[in-house]
């Protein structure tokens, strides 16, 4: 819709909401940001944004705002069940998400990358590969800058590379990626969704507006277990590092495309089966955009993974300390365990998101000789694992690092892979990982 002189509300004053509000102001909308947080917490942000002509309502005033707007833009981090959103639903105000809003203004095709794990790494791989191969792109969305913050530059791009979460996909209407990448699907966000089926349906929306002129790059194991091929209109390429039959396969440490070797894992800086699949997905995107595999190999080989993803942060007394704070669900923890060949002292635990850690008890018994637990989940995890491996609870992350050091021997690894989110003790996974790194460096 044209936004000039329209009354538009942005629900949520996080990075996505702020970017959407600023873009709306540029489009000539009369924009109001509503956020349930206390006014004092938002004061510095309000001082920054009000000179742009953007109004802000906070706290109870936001939750009970009686005004009717022409449209609401919902930030992805806000649960639709909260009073702020329910107030808009009662007034029957049309709402779309920040992803859909930005898509309306996008002037080039989109590559959308989703999955429970690996989204950020794959998005970075794709963006690096395309740019170094002469295809202009920007990485945005769930990865860093919001789509709304960079969509004005889309006219100068060949394609936009977006990391998209289930939260962002919930409120789409017409969003249509030319290439949709589905990395995997495992339990997560059960503190947001009532069940796995609701989470699955939200994720699957990435495909719903695609046509026969579009493409889907999908993990082989999820068809048809998670994705019914009959529901897809796009052309499909599959990948798997553990099963035969995909277009991309991993054989003897070499990624192959339909039987032809294209990239050896020894030539890249990424490790583990999960990263082999992230590389396959990136290669699939490049192949669909007309790039040759030889040309793609160098940008992928020189990619350096970001912090908090199986990051070696120090070696003390012959013990490697690995920061995998980005492991915010069980699948990510499982992949970190599988990527290690040495005996492990594991630090895990955090916010209770409803996960059942019993599903990996066998793997814990196989890979780990001692567990140190932190956070809300500590007691529940200990009850599941104690019969297989010694478990102890720590009062803080500092206490956990000290306890882990006492159990680790030279040649082993202390793996900090929480397996759940961090909000019970930390600002976010990055804060959690940074604190772990500092504690290790102070040993």
Instruction: Please tell me what the overall shape is.
Output: globular
Which superfamily, in CATH terms, is the homologous superfamily of the largest domain?
Mur-like, catalytic domain
Low-confidence stretches: none
Helicity range of the residues?
A: 25-40%
User: How many whole angstroms does the radius of gyration measure?
Assistant: 23 Å
Quickly give the structural class: alpha/beta
Put simply, the count of helices is 16
CATH class of the largest domain: Alpha Beta
Strand order of the largest sheet: 7-8-6-9-10-11-12-13-14
Task: Write structural notes for this entry.
It is a single chain. With 443 residues, the chain is an alpha/beta fold. The chain has 3 domains: 7-93, 3-Layer(aba) Sandwich (Rossmann fold), CATH 3.40.50; 100-301, Mur-like, catalytic domain (UDP-N-acetylmuramoyl-L-alanine:D-glutamate ligase), CATH 3.40.1190.10; 311-441, Mur ligase, C-terminal domain (Protein-Tyrosine Phosphatase, Chain A). The chain is 33% helix and 21% strand. The chain is built from 16 helices and 20 strands. The protein has helices at 15-26, 39-49, 60-63, 83-90, 98-104, 119-132, 147-150, 166-169, 196-204, 273-288, 293-301, 330-338, 361-367, 378-385, 397-407, 429-441, and strands spanning 7-11, 30-35, 55-58, 71-74, 95-97, 110-114, 137-141, 159-163, 179-182, 215-219, 235-240, 248-251, 254-257, 260-264, 311-316, 319-323, 344-348, 368-373, 391-393, 413-416. The strands form 3 sheets. It has a 9-stranded mixed beta sheet. The protein has a 6-stranded mixed beta sheet with strand order 15-16-20-17-18-19, with helices on both faces. Strand 15 (311-316) and strand 16 form a beta hairpin. Helix 6 packs across helix 10 (273-288) and helix 6 crosses helix 11.
């Amino acid at each position: 819709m044209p936004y000039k002189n329209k009354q538009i509300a942005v629900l949520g004053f996080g990075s996505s909401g702020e970017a959407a509000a600023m873009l709306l102001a540029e489009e000539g909308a009369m924009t109001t940001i509503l956020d349930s947080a206390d006014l004092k917490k938002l004061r510095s942000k309000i001082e920054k944004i009000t000179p742009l002509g953007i109004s802000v309502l906070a706290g109870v005033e936001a939750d009970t705002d009686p005004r009717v707007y022409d449209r609401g833009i919902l930030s992805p981090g806000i649960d639709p069940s909260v009073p702020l959103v329910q107030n808009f639903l009662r007034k029957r105000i049309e709402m779309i998400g920040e992803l859909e809003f930005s898509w309306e203004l996008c002037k080039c095709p989109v590559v959308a990358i989703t999955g429970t794990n690996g989204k950020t790494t794959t998005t970075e791989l794709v963006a690096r590969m395309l740019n170094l191969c002469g295809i202009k792109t920007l990485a945005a969305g769930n990865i860093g800058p919001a789509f709304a913050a960079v969509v004005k530059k889309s006219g100068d791009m060949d394609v936009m590379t977006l990391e998209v979460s289930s939260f962002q996909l919930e409120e789409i209407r017409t969003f249509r990626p030319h290439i949709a990448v589905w990395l995997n699907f495992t339990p997560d966000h059960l503190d947001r969704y009532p069940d796995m089926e609701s989470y699955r349906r939200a994720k699957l929306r990435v495909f719903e507006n695609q046509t026969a002129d579009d493409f889907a790059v999908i993990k082989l194991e999820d068809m048809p277990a998670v994705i019914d091929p009959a529901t897809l209109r796009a052309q499909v390429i599959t990948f798997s590092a553990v099963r035969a039959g995909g277009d991309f396969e991993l054989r003897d440490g070499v990624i192959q495309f339909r039987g032809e070797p294209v990239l050896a894992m020894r030539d890249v800086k990424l490790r583990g089966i999960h990263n082999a699949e992230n590389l396959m997905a990136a290669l699939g995107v490049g192949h669909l955009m007309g790039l040759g595999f030889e040309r793609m190999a160098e940008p992928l080989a020189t990619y350096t993974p970001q912090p908090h993803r199986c990051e070696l942060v120090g070696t003390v007394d012959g013990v490697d300390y690995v920061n995998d704070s980005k492991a915010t669900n069980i699948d990510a923890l499982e992949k970190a365990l599988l990527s290690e060949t040495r005996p492990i002292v594991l630090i895990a635990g955090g916010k209770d998101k409803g996960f059942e850690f019993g599903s990996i008890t066998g793997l814990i018994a196989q890979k780990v000789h001692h567990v140190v637990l932190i956070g809300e989940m500590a007691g529940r995890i200990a009850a599941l694992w104690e019969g297989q491996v010694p478990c102890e609870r720590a009062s803080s992350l500092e206490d956990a690092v000290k306890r882990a050091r006492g159990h680790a021997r030279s040649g082993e690894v202390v793996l900090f892979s929480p397996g759940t989110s961090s909000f019970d003790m930390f600002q976010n996974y990055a804060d959690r990982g940074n604190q772990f790194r500092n504690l290790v460096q102070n040993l």
